[in-house]
Amino acid sequence: MSHPDLISFAGGWEGYRVRNTTTTGTGNEKRIEIELVPKFQEQLLCPCCGKQCTGVHETTKRIVRDLPILDARTYLVVHHRRLFCPQCGPVLESLPWLAKHARVTGRLAASVARLCSWLPIKHVAEFYALSWDQVKEIDKRSLQQRFGSVDLSTVEVIGMDEFALRKGHRYATVIVEPHRKEVLFVAKGRSRESIRPFFQQLGDEGRKRLKAVAMDMNGAFEEEVKANCPQAAIVYDLFHVVAKYSREVLDRVRNAEADRIKDDKKARKIIRTSRWLLLRNSRNVKDGDMVRLQELLQANQNLLTVYLLKEDLKQLWRFRCTEEAELFWEQWYRRAMESKIPQLVLFATRLQVYLQGILNHCLWQLHTGILEGINNKIKVIKRMAYGFRDHDYFFLKIRAAFPGIPG
């Protein structure tokens, strides 16, 4: 087998053969150019209508990148034909190994996309000597082909949460199927208008099929769900309720107690620096910190009360019987009101409005823990790309990171 024939055989450029090869440069600048010309074909079929073309309208040269051969960057000089179809007119010949207007072959694009799932765009671009924008567009097209559409035909329960796009107050919303751990929808913003397209995609049957939605106490989310799926149970998540309690009760009571004893600098410093100790789950407090925590709580009645009620509030999500959970809530609510701690009384009064969504957890053991995992992964994706200016691409990367577990 001759040298060009061997390269043609190894290259797999279907319908083309090697006319000539040239090598230039050395080291990292080594470059191979392979000139490809069409093989003789008795029949030339139109890629649009499939009918036989009468001939070649014109031939143009295209220079495209292929996978490196050994240590050399590989460029193909392709004599690409425009065929003449009696029905469609001049049409560009379809090549299985090269997309219509692509600057790289299909296998190089596939290799770039695979690497982009593990490495930052910058590193992939340096490895293949491509530009950042080229690599990003290749990866984006690959993701659109794989994740551009989503099957919502079996979705019965969902979870939704917001995440920060960047520092400041710019947010996006992610919707998942919690059992399959699949991201179904990502949208810029956290308003009713932001998530409305998801319910439109569900269609009438899909909206009727939805049974439960896990979320935080976002009024916009709840209103849109009720407007589209009034039969769906709203399920409030433990994580967000406890986080809200920590911000609105624990932190404020701690600050108020520190201000109350501002003349005692030592005691005030102990309270001011105890935030993470009070927020930590009791089972995660180690021996040395446990002594500190006990001393702190014994010295301050208000902190002791709000700390114990925080731990007890978590128990509400362990019930599987609605009646028992409601009885437990009534007892917790009474203790909160009897404490006469303003921050705690206000929180309990406001939480009473959301009681049904909390009790729904007895029937639907849904939580947004998977969404917290997604938020952490999102931070990693942003770091790998040094931020995202193209939100559509960013959202595709999120969907690719959580494609779902097969049922």
Can you walk through the features of this model?
This protein is of the alpha/beta class. The protein has 3 domains: 3-103, no CATH class; 157-236 and 366-401, Nucleotidyltransferase, domain 5 (2-Layer Sandwich), CATH 3.30.420.10; 238-362. Helices cover 48% and strands 20% of the residues. The protein contains 16 helices and 10 strands. The chain has helices at residues 3-11, 106-116, 121-128, 132-147, 192-209, 219-228, 238-260, 265-272, 275-279, 287-298, 301-315, 322-339, 342-352, 355-359, 369-385, 391-401; strands at 16-24, 31-38, 55-69, 72-85, 89-92, 157-166, 170-177, 182-188, 212-215, 233-236. Strands 1, 2, 3, 4 and 5 form a 5-stranded mixed β-sheet that branches. The radius of gyration is 31 Å and the shape is elongated. The two termini are 51 Å apart. This is ISL3 family transposase. Residues 158-398 form the Transposase IS204/IS1001/IS1096/IS1165 DDE domain. InterPro entries: Transpos_ISL3, Transposase_DDE, Transposase_HTH, Transposase_Znf. Residues 93-141 form the Transposase IS204/IS1001/IS1096/IS1165 helix-turn-helix domain. Residues 46-88 form the Transposase IS204/IS1001/IS1096/IS1165 zinc-finger domain.
Which features does this protein show?
20% strand, five-stranded mixed beta sheet, elongated, 407 residues, Nucleotidyltransferase, domain 5, 48% helix, alpha/beta, 3 domains
